[in-house]
Design goal:
Elements lengths: L3 E7 L12 E7 L8 E9 L3 H5 L17 E11 L9 E7 L3 E4 L8 E2 L15 H14 L6 E4 L5 H12 L3 E6 L2 H9 L5 E4 L5 H9 L3 E6 L3 H8 L2 E9 L20 H4 L3 E4 L9 H13 L7 E5 L4 H10 L5 E5 L8
Parallel strand pairs: 8-9, 8-11, 9-10, 11-12, 12-13, 14-15
Antiparallel strand pairs: 1-2, 3-4, 3-6, 3-15, 4-5, 5-7
Helix pairs in contact: 2-3, 2-8
The structure holds NADP nicotinamide-adenine-dinucleotide phosphate.
């Protein structure tokens, strides 16, 4: 194969926001698969706030990306050449891959290499049927367990995880309030995704809006952002309320972390429970959840958006979009036009 393989390798560890200069764009030959391996052409990358955490050289649920390695990322790819019994050329697969055009793999890794079933749009396994949809499913339905008529607040509600989480709570009959940055996202929440109320935390007084909508009545808070929004919700929890701690993107996931929630003693005085989770805890149940989500999408009960950027070289800038709130729904990047002819 005469084409070159472009890779984005981690050059320096960022302290705060990722910079283009933290990565080196290197060109090299396209690798060849050995026995038991496949050669993949990456098509779409998933962008996930947790990737920023993978750049910190600190203990976490996965080892940090090493200096000189291509940046780890969820991706959909096409099998170009297979010397693996499970895959054949032309198969479309998803898995935890990395920022490069071509990859040789034995199909292992965090979530393995999974064939994308026919009829499923290529981007869905990275979003609504992928990690973010599954996180919403398990976080909301298994941990949060929303009940009919309960007040449920979801932060980061117009993002990939929050938008699905809120709609799942609506399906259980809850009254759902979302927080999101900007009028456009808030309109999408109430007019498209069926949230009962949306609070534009960038332009409104979040605490005042929560007091007006649900003072001391939040039974379930599904938190994607932490920071001031977590504090506002802590001050408005109902007695015996639950907080599902999904993420804390307002910290930036860099090395300089802000102080924790000021009002955490409200957990004591209001007898609330706050519980974190990692979606990988539920890996053995991913097929069941993806099937349920696909059914609800087909029935029109779950709406979702995708923001698709283009070009491998734009990966670092696309990662920054998540932390600036520039994405509505799932943040993706297209690296190649599928399907690739051999
Ligand atoms: N526990 C798990 O296993 C698991 C798995 C996947 C994801 N997560 C977490 O779930 C959360 C959402 O992830 P996602 O992939 O679905 O991303 P996303 O919500 O699609 O995108 C991130 C969103 O975060 C919001 N945001 C950024 N900075 C913020 C700030 N300072 N304050 C408030 N909101 C801010 C932005 O929306 P606005 O415009 O509204 O600001 C942005 O669009 C993240 O915290 C992520 O780490 C957890």
């Amino acid at each position: 194969m005469s084409e070159t393989n472009r890779q984005l390798l981690l050059k320096t560890r960022p302290r705060a926001e990722v910079q283009d200069s933290d990565f080196e764009l290197r060109e090299g030959p396209v690798p060849s698969p050995a026995e038991g391996q496949v050669l993949l052409r990456t098509l779409y990358f998933s962008f996930d706030p947790t990737q920023r955490g993978w750049l910190n050289d600190v203990p976490s649920y996965l080892p940090p990306v090493k200096i000189g390695e291509p940046m780890r990322a969820g991706a959909v790819a096409q099998v170009i050449e297979s010397r693996h019994p499970k895959f054949k050329a032309g198969d479309i697969v998803s898995g935890t891959l990395s920022w490069q055009d071509y990859i040789v793999t034995d199909g292992g890794g965090m979530t393995g290499l999974n064939k994308v079933p026919p009829g499923i749009p290529l981007t869905w396994p990275l979003g609504v049927l992928g990690i973010t949809g599954l996180t919403a499913y398990f976080g909301m339905l298994e941990l949060g367990k929303p009940q009919a008529d309960e007040v449920v607040v979801v932060s980061g509600a117009a993002g990939a995880t929050g938008s699905v989480a809120g709609q799942l709570a609506k399906m259980r009959g809850a009254r759902v309030i979302g927080t999101a940055g900007g009028p456009e996202k808030c309109r999408w929440l109430t007019e498209v995704a069926g949230f009962d109320e949306a609070i534009d935390y960038k332009n409104e007084d979040t605490h005042a809006r929560l007091q007006a909508l649900c003072k001391d009545r939040i039974k379930l808070f599904f938190d994607n952002v932490g920071g001031p929004i977590l504090d506002h919700c802590l001050l408005n929890m109902a007695r015996f309320g639950r907080i599902v701690l999904c993420g804390g993107i307002s910290s930036g996931y860099g090395l300089d972390l802000p102080p924790g929630p000021k009002h955490y003693m409200q957990l004591v005085v209001r007898s609330c429970r706050m519980e974190g989770f990692i979606v990988l805890n539920y890996m053995d149940r991913f097929p069941e959840a993806a099937q349920a989500l696909a059914g609800w999408i087909r029935e029109g009960r779950i709406k979702f958006e995708e923001d698709i950027q283009e070009g491998l070289e734009n990966c670092p800038a696309t990662m920054r979009r998540l932390f600036k709130g520039q994405n509505l729904g799932k943040q993706l990047l297209k690296v190649a036009e599928p399907p690739i002819a051999r």
